[in-house]
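ok so I'm stuck.
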Amino acid sequence: MKILVTGAAGFIGMHVCERLLARGDGVVGLDNLNDYYDVSLKEARLARLMPSPGFRFHTLDVADRPGMAALFEREKPQRVVHLAAQAGVRYSLKNPHAYVDSNLVGFVNILEGCRHAGVEHLAYASSSSVYGGNTRLPFSEHDNVDHPVSLYAATKKANELMAHTYSHLFGLPTTGLRFFTVYGPWGRPDMALFLFTKAILEGRPIEVFNHGRMQRDFTYIDDIVEGILRVLDRPPTADTAFDKNEPDPAASWAPYRVFNIGNHRPVELMTYIETLEKALGRNAEKVFLPLQDGDVPVTSADTSSLEHITGFSPGTAVEDGIARFVAWYGSYYGLQAC
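replied:
not stuck anymore, here's the structure
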Protein backbone atom coordinates (compact mmCIF):
# COMPACT_ATOMS: atom_id res chain seq x y z
CA MET A 1 0.00 0.00 0.00
CA LYS A 2 1.22 3.50 -0.80
CA ILE A 3 0.76 5.95 2.07
CA LEU A 4 1.48 9.68 2.04
CA VAL A 5 2.82 10.98 5.35
CA THR A 6 3.01 14.75 5.69
CA GLY A 7 5.38 16.15 8.30
CA ALA A 8 7.61 13.12 7.69
CA ALA A 9 10.68 14.83 9.19
CA GLY A 10 8.74 15.74 12.32
CA PHE A 11 8.74 13.97 15.67
CA ILE A 12 5.60 11.88 15.18
CA GLY A 13 6.00 11.73 11.41
CA MET A 14 9.39 10.03 11.48
CA HIS A 15 8.18 7.37 13.88
CA VAL A 16 5.05 6.72 11.81
CA CYS A 17 7.13 6.37 8.64
CA GLU A 18 9.45 3.89 10.33
CA ARG A 19 6.55 1.71 11.45
CA LEU A 20 4.86 1.80 8.05
CA LEU A 21 8.09 0.91 6.28
CA ALA A 22 8.78 -1.90 8.76
CA ARG A 23 5.46 -3.54 7.94
CA GLY A 24 6.07 -3.30 4.20
CA ASP A 25 4.12 -0.24 3.08
CA GLY A 26 5.47 2.20 0.55
CA VAL A 27 5.78 5.66 2.08
CA VAL A 28 5.80 9.02 0.33
CA GLY A 29 7.14 11.53 2.83
CA LEU A 30 6.56 15.27 2.68
CA ASP A 31 7.97 18.08 4.81
CA ASN A 32 8.91 21.72 4.26
CA LEU A 33 11.82 21.50 6.74
CA ASN A 34 11.03 24.93 8.15
CA ASP A 35 13.08 26.55 10.91
CA TYR A 36 10.42 26.66 13.65
CA TYR A 37 12.99 24.58 15.54
CA ASP A 38 16.44 23.13 14.81
CA VAL A 39 16.45 22.02 11.17
CA SER A 40 19.41 19.71 11.78
CA LEU A 41 17.21 17.57 14.05
CA LYS A 42 14.65 17.26 11.27
CA GLU A 43 17.41 16.33 8.83
CA ALA A 44 18.73 13.72 11.25
CA ARG A 45 15.27 12.17 11.51
CA LEU A 46 14.99 12.17 7.75
CA ALA A 47 18.39 10.49 7.45
CA ARG A 48 16.96 7.49 9.30
CA LEU A 49 14.29 7.07 6.62
CA MET A 50 16.14 7.80 3.40
CA PRO A 51 18.03 4.47 3.13
CA SER A 52 14.77 2.52 2.90
CA PRO A 53 13.90 1.53 -0.69
CA GLY A 54 10.23 1.92 0.18
CA PHE A 55 10.60 5.62 1.07
CA ARG A 56 10.48 8.65 -1.22
CA PHE A 57 10.72 12.21 0.06
CA HIS A 58 9.48 15.55 -1.25
CA THR A 59 10.46 18.92 0.20
CA LEU A 60 7.16 20.73 -0.09
CA ASP A 61 4.91 23.00 1.96
CA VAL A 62 1.31 21.82 2.36
CA ALA A 63 0.23 25.45 1.81
CA ASP A 64 1.64 25.27 -1.75
CA ARG A 65 -1.59 24.68 -3.65
CA PRO A 66 -0.22 23.82 -7.12
CA GLY A 67 2.63 21.82 -5.59
CA MET A 68 0.24 19.72 -3.50
CA ALA A 69 -2.12 19.15 -6.41
CA ALA A 70 0.78 17.96 -8.55
CA LEU A 71 2.03 15.67 -5.78
CA PHE A 72 -1.33 13.92 -5.39
CA GLU A 73 -1.66 13.60 -9.17
CA ARG A 74 1.81 12.09 -9.48
CA GLU A 75 1.86 9.81 -6.44
CA LYS A 76 -1.81 8.78 -6.14
CA PRO A 77 -1.55 7.58 -2.50
CA GLN A 78 -4.14 5.11 -1.23
CA ARG A 79 -4.13 6.49 2.30
CA VAL A 80 -2.87 9.71 3.90
CA VAL A 81 -1.50 10.40 7.37
CA HIS A 82 -1.52 14.18 7.69
CA LEU A 83 0.80 15.32 10.49
CA ALA A 84 2.28 18.50 8.98
CA ALA A 85 1.15 21.58 10.87
CA GLN A 86 2.37 24.66 12.62
CA ALA A 87 2.58 23.30 16.15
CA GLY A 88 2.70 24.96 19.54
CA VAL A 89 0.08 26.70 21.65
CA ARG A 90 2.29 29.51 22.93
CA TYR A 91 3.81 30.33 19.54
CA SER A 92 0.31 30.86 18.13
CA LEU A 93 0.04 33.99 20.28
CA LYS A 94 3.11 35.43 18.55
CA ASN A 95 2.75 34.34 14.93
CA PRO A 96 -0.90 33.65 14.14
CA HIS A 97 -0.50 33.84 10.36
CA ALA A 98 1.77 30.78 10.36
CA TYR A 99 -1.15 28.78 11.75
CA VAL A 100 -3.57 30.02 9.14
CA ASP A 101 -1.16 29.20 6.30
CA SER A 102 -0.21 25.71 7.46
CA ASN A 103 -3.16 24.49 9.48
CA LEU A 104 -6.03 25.96 7.45
CA VAL A 105 -4.79 26.61 3.90
CA GLY A 106 -2.57 23.53 4.06
CA PHE A 107 -5.39 21.36 5.34
CA VAL A 108 -7.81 22.30 2.57
CA ASN A 109 -5.06 21.43 0.08
CA ILE A 110 -4.82 18.00 1.72
CA LEU A 111 -8.59 17.54 1.57
CA GLU A 112 -8.73 18.55 -2.07
CA GLY A 113 -5.85 16.24 -2.92
CA CYS A 114 -7.54 13.32 -1.16
CA ARG A 115 -10.85 14.08 -2.86
CA HIS A 116 -9.47 14.16 -6.39
CA ALA A 117 -7.07 11.25 -5.89
CA GLY A 118 -9.79 8.99 -4.51
CA VAL A 119 -7.92 8.41 -1.24
CA GLU A 120 -9.57 5.65 0.79
CA HIS A 121 -8.78 7.13 4.22
CA LEU A 122 -7.38 10.39 5.58
CA ALA A 123 -6.13 10.21 9.17
CA TYR A 124 -5.03 13.62 10.43
CA ALA A 125 -3.56 15.15 13.57
CA SER A 126 -5.97 17.05 15.73
CA SER A 127 -5.08 17.90 19.33
CA SER A 128 -6.21 17.66 22.93
CA SER A 129 -6.13 21.46 22.85
CA VAL A 130 -9.55 21.44 21.13
CA TYR A 131 -11.09 20.79 24.56
CA GLY A 132 -10.14 24.36 25.48
CA GLY A 133 -12.15 25.63 28.42
CA ASN A 134 -13.77 22.26 29.17
CA THR A 135 -13.41 21.24 32.82
CA ARG A 136 -15.26 17.92 32.88
CA LEU A 137 -12.67 15.15 33.10
CA PRO A 138 -11.64 12.98 31.44
CA PHE A 139 -12.05 14.71 28.09
CA SER A 140 -14.38 12.72 25.85
CA GLU A 141 -14.92 12.86 22.10
CA HIS A 142 -18.63 13.01 22.89
CA ASP A 143 -18.17 16.40 24.61
CA ASN A 144 -18.78 19.72 22.89
CA VAL A 145 -15.51 21.48 21.95
CA ASP A 146 -16.66 24.93 20.89
CA HIS A 147 -14.60 27.02 23.33
CA PRO A 148 -10.91 26.98 22.28
CA VAL A 149 -8.46 29.09 24.29
CA SER A 150 -5.71 29.44 21.67
CA LEU A 151 -5.57 30.01 17.91
CA TYR A 152 -3.72 26.71 17.57
CA ALA A 153 -6.67 24.93 19.18
CA ALA A 154 -9.11 26.83 16.96
CA THR A 155 -7.28 25.69 13.82
CA LYS A 156 -7.40 22.07 14.98
CA LYS A 157 -11.12 22.34 15.70
CA ALA A 158 -11.51 23.91 12.25
CA ASN A 159 -9.69 20.92 10.73
CA GLU A 160 -12.26 18.58 12.25
CA LEU A 161 -15.11 20.67 10.83
CA MET A 162 -13.48 20.87 7.41
CA ALA A 163 -12.89 17.11 7.39
CA HIS A 164 -16.52 16.46 8.25
CA THR A 165 -17.63 18.62 5.35
CA TYR A 166 -15.55 16.58 2.90
CA SER A 167 -16.74 13.32 4.44
CA HIS A 168 -20.32 14.49 3.94
CA LEU A 169 -20.01 16.05 0.49
CA PHE A 170 -17.60 13.67 -1.17
CA GLY A 171 -17.74 10.48 0.91
CA LEU A 172 -14.08 10.88 1.92
CA PRO A 173 -13.45 8.75 5.04
CA THR A 174 -11.65 10.96 7.58
CA THR A 175 -10.44 10.37 11.12
CA GLY A 176 -9.20 13.11 13.44
CA LEU A 177 -6.66 12.08 16.08
CA ARG A 178 -6.59 14.18 19.23
CA PHE A 179 -3.07 13.69 20.57
CA PHE A 180 -2.33 14.28 24.25
CA THR A 181 1.15 15.72 25.12
CA VAL A 182 3.38 13.43 23.09
CA TYR A 183 6.93 12.79 24.32
CA GLY A 184 9.82 10.41 23.70
CA PRO A 185 13.05 9.96 21.70
CA TRP A 186 13.51 12.36 18.77
CA GLY A 187 11.00 14.73 20.40
CA ARG A 188 10.47 18.39 19.62
CA PRO A 189 12.88 20.89 21.25
CA ASP A 190 10.00 23.23 22.12
CA MET A 191 8.26 20.63 24.30
CA ALA A 192 8.62 20.55 28.08
CA LEU A 193 10.64 17.34 28.42
CA PHE A 194 13.25 18.49 25.90
CA LEU A 195 13.42 21.99 27.37
CA PHE A 196 13.72 20.68 30.94
CA THR A 197 16.40 18.13 30.05
CA LYS A 198 18.53 20.65 28.17
CA ALA A 199 18.27 23.26 30.93
CA ILE A 200 19.05 20.83 33.76
CA LEU A 201 22.11 19.44 31.99
CA GLU A 202 23.33 22.97 31.27
CA GLY A 203 22.79 24.06 34.87
CA ARG A 204 20.06 26.54 34.01
CA PRO A 205 16.70 26.93 35.81
CA ILE A 206 13.55 25.49 34.32
CA GLU A 207 10.30 27.44 33.98
CA VAL A 208 7.38 25.76 35.76
CA PHE A 209 4.04 27.30 34.79
CA ASN A 210 0.94 27.66 36.94
CA HIS A 211 3.34 27.32 39.89
CA GLY A 212 3.54 23.59 39.20
CA ARG A 213 -0.18 23.02 39.70
CA MET A 214 -0.68 21.29 36.36
CA GLN A 215 -1.55 17.80 35.20
CA ARG A 216 -0.86 16.40 31.77
CA ASP A 217 -1.83 13.19 30.05
CA PHE A 218 1.73 12.55 28.88
CA THR A 219 1.63 9.98 26.05
CA TYR A 220 4.68 8.07 24.86
CA ILE A 221 5.48 8.22 21.16
CA ASP A 222 5.23 4.45 20.55
CA ASP A 223 1.68 4.48 21.93
CA ILE A 224 0.77 7.38 19.65
CA VAL A 225 2.12 5.57 16.60
CA GLU A 226 0.37 2.33 17.48
CA GLY A 227 -2.89 4.25 17.79
CA ILE A 228 -2.37 5.99 14.44
CA LEU A 229 -1.70 2.76 12.56
CA ARG A 230 -4.63 0.92 14.11
CA VAL A 231 -6.97 3.75 13.22
CA LEU A 232 -5.48 4.13 9.72
CA ASP A 233 -6.31 0.50 8.98
CA ARG A 234 -9.95 1.03 9.98
CA PRO A 235 -11.52 3.66 7.70
CA PRO A 236 -14.71 5.01 9.28
CA THR A 237 -18.14 4.30 7.89
CA ALA A 238 -21.41 6.18 8.30
CA ASP A 239 -23.13 5.78 11.65
CA THR A 240 -26.62 4.61 10.68
CA ALA A 241 -27.84 5.27 14.24
CA PHE A 242 -26.78 8.93 14.20
CA ASP A 243 -29.57 11.16 15.55
CA LYS A 244 -29.59 14.65 14.04
CA ASN A 245 -31.98 15.80 16.75
CA GLU A 246 -29.40 14.93 19.41
CA PRO A 247 -26.12 15.03 17.50
CA ASP A 248 -23.10 13.27 18.98
CA PRO A 249 -19.88 15.26 18.29
CA ALA A 250 -17.96 11.97 18.00
CA ALA A 251 -20.17 10.45 15.30
CA SER A 252 -21.81 11.33 11.99
CA TRP A 253 -24.05 10.13 9.20
CA ALA A 254 -20.90 10.63 7.08
CA PRO A 255 -17.76 8.43 7.14
CA TYR A 256 -16.17 10.60 9.81
CA ARG A 257 -14.73 9.93 13.25
CA VAL A 258 -12.52 11.50 15.94
CA PHE A 259 -10.44 9.71 18.58
CA ASN A 260 -8.48 10.68 21.66
CA ILE A 261 -5.03 9.11 21.79
CA GLY A 262 -3.74 9.66 25.32
CA ASN A 263 -2.29 7.71 28.19
CA HIS A 264 -5.52 8.25 30.21
CA ARG A 265 -3.41 8.57 33.38
CA PRO A 266 -2.79 12.28 34.08
CA VAL A 267 0.50 12.99 35.85
CA GLU A 268 1.26 15.94 38.09
CA LEU A 269 3.80 18.22 36.44
CA MET A 270 5.97 18.20 39.57
CA THR A 271 5.95 14.38 39.55
CA TYR A 272 7.00 14.45 35.90
CA ILE A 273 9.89 16.77 36.76
CA GLU A 274 10.93 14.59 39.72
CA THR A 275 10.96 11.54 37.44
CA LEU A 276 13.21 13.41 35.00
CA GLU A 277 15.52 14.50 37.83
CA LYS A 278 15.93 10.87 38.89
CA ALA A 279 16.65 9.76 35.31
CA LEU A 280 19.30 12.49 34.94
CA GLY A 281 20.71 12.11 38.43
CA ARG A 282 20.46 15.88 38.90
CA ASN A 283 18.07 18.27 40.60
CA ALA A 284 16.47 21.12 38.72
CA GLU A 285 16.46 24.73 39.79
CA LYS A 286 12.85 25.82 39.34
CA VAL A 287 11.33 29.19 38.52
CA PHE A 288 7.60 29.14 39.23
CA LEU A 289 5.44 31.23 36.91
CA PRO A 290 1.70 31.88 36.36
CA LEU A 291 -0.39 29.92 33.89
CA GLN A 292 0.32 31.18 30.39
CA ASP A 293 -2.35 32.56 28.08
CA GLY A 294 -3.77 29.83 25.86
CA ASP A 295 -2.77 27.06 28.27
CA VAL A 296 -4.97 24.86 30.47
CA PRO A 297 -4.19 23.42 33.92
CA VAL A 298 -5.30 19.82 33.29
CA THR A 299 -5.64 17.40 30.39
CA SER A 300 -7.01 13.88 30.68
CA ALA A 301 -8.07 11.54 27.88
CA ASP A 302 -11.01 9.19 27.79
CA THR A 303 -9.72 6.53 25.38
CA SER A 304 -12.64 4.11 25.61
CA SER A 305 -13.70 4.78 22.01
CA LEU A 306 -10.20 4.06 20.69
CA GLU A 307 -10.06 0.84 22.68
CA HIS A 308 -13.54 -0.21 21.57
CA ILE A 309 -12.81 0.27 17.87
CA THR A 310 -9.16 -0.80 17.70
CA GLY A 311 -8.58 -2.95 20.78
CA PHE A 312 -5.70 -0.67 21.81
CA SER A 313 -5.24 1.70 24.72
CA PRO A 314 -1.94 3.54 25.43
CA GLY A 315 -0.21 2.49 28.63
CA THR A 316 3.52 3.31 28.71
CA ALA A 317 4.46 4.58 32.19
CA VAL A 318 6.18 7.96 32.34
CA GLU A 319 9.10 6.40 34.25
CA ASP A 320 9.83 4.17 31.27
CA GLY A 321 9.17 6.82 28.66
CA ILE A 322 11.35 9.46 30.32
CA ALA A 323 14.19 6.97 30.79
CA ARG A 324 14.11 6.17 27.06
CA PHE A 325 14.07 9.85 26.15
CA VAL A 326 17.05 10.60 28.42
CA ALA A 327 18.99 7.69 26.92
CA TRP A 328 18.27 8.97 23.41
CA TYR A 329 19.16 12.57 24.34
CA GLY A 330 22.52 11.50 25.72
CA SER A 331 23.27 9.37 22.68
CA TYR A 332 22.20 12.01 20.17
CA TYR A 333 24.15 14.84 21.80
CA GLY A 334 27.07 12.66 22.92
CA LEU A 335 26.62 13.29 26.62
CA GLN A 336 28.10 10.79 29.07
CA ALA A 337 25.85 12.06 31.87
CA CYS A 338 22.83 10.53 30.14
